Amino acid sequence: MRYHVTLPSGREIPVDVTHLPDGQLEVSVEGRPLAADVSGQGASLHVRLDGRGVDLWLAGAPPDVDVAANGRRFTARVESERARDLRSARSAGPVLGEGLVTSPMPGRVLKVLVREGDEVLAGAPLVVVEAMKMENELGAARGGVVKKIYVTPGAAVESGARLVEVG
Q: Rounded to whole angstroms, how far apart are CA atoms 144 and 109?
């Protein structure tokens, strides 16, 4: 899995971590493979990369993690590729076109909160889609009448799938 680690300086470092079937880790930092070993548990870890060891103490939860290492304390932003894609999809918004609400990512429809013919205000919740174990409530970009509902609860949807049209 790819992680993006942003240091206090603003420098972002891509880190790829693969868990192998034998329990070992395959790690690549900025595209450069490194011999890696991690021991410890919870907030206290000992990490060896290419033979150099460092003790890490971690606090908080991603994306913002407090780190103590080599006598220094700092906060790093750690985002998985999936979390970054989800954040990007949310900030881009679920609406394409005039009043067509589409799914920002693959998932499953949990609830349809409106019926065809309902009048809705801008921002009104229309449908709830579960993606990556998170519930995403998608709303109307503008007020109007629900013209068409394209999905039912339980339906699997792909990214960009039509959900509801408001006219």
A: 22
